[in-house]
Amino acid sequence: MSYEPLFMKGWEKYIKDQSNVKTKNDWIEFRRKWYDEDEKKWPKKTPQQRAEESTKKRGPIKIGGRTLVHVSYPFDLTSEARYELMKTSTEIGLRLVLPNGYHSPQESGDNQGWMQECPYCEIATHEIGDENCPICTRKMIYIWVGD
Ligand SMILES: [Zn+2]
């Protein structure tokens, strides 16, 4: 049974707090309140879970004309929590922490060095395309992996 973190349990308050994050300091405060303290309690995936994952996650998969690779996050959180955490950290947090950086290939004008990732399904692709995950249809997040 995967862990349900504090921000999922306190969803309404969490979303309200999130909507008030406008500055880097707001973000740091928000992250401390909802993620950093709670993170100490998040269980890591066990060696057995990781072994099962690697059996299930053999090789790249081809869906909708794109090649996707499996990615694995260290914490044993629910898929919903993992997605929410990564999406918010990337789309709100990173933009405030690195306001002058590029946060998508559309902004940088070049697909090189970017991946699209779905933290819910734990898949990612270098083939930048459809915004939505081909498995769960959630909006994928852009990750800069460098060139
Ligand atoms: Zn997905």
Shape: globular
- Strand element count: 5
How do the helices and strands follow one another from N- to C-terminus? Answer: HHHHEEHHEEE
- Order of strands, widest sheet: 1-2-4-3-5
Evaluate the radius of gyration: 16 Å
In short:
This protein has 147 residues and is an alpha+beta fold. It has helices spanning 6-9, 11-19, 24-39, 47-56, 79-97, 105-108; strands spanning 61-63, 66-70, 114-118, 123-125, 141-144.
Q: What do you see in this structure?
A:
- The model has no long low-confidence stretch (mean pLDDT about 95).
- Strand 3 (about 115-120) and strand 4 (about 125) form a beta hairpin.
- The protein has a domain at about 45-145.
- It is built from six helices and five strands.
- A five-stranded antiparallel beta sheet has the order 1-2-4-3-5.
- The protein is of the alpha+beta class and about 150 residues long.
- The protein binds zinc ion (ZN).
- Zinc ion binds next to loops.
Main features:
single chain; 147 residues; alpha+beta; five-stranded antiparallel sheet; 6 helices; globular; binds zinc ion
Secondary-structure map:
Layout: H1 6-9, H2 11-19, H3 24-39, H4 47-56, E1 61-63, E2 66-70, H5 79-97, H6 105-108, E3 114-118, E4 123-125, E5 141-144
Antiparallel strand pairs: 1-2, 2-4, 3-4, 3-5
Helix pairs in contact: 3-5
This protein binds zinc ion.
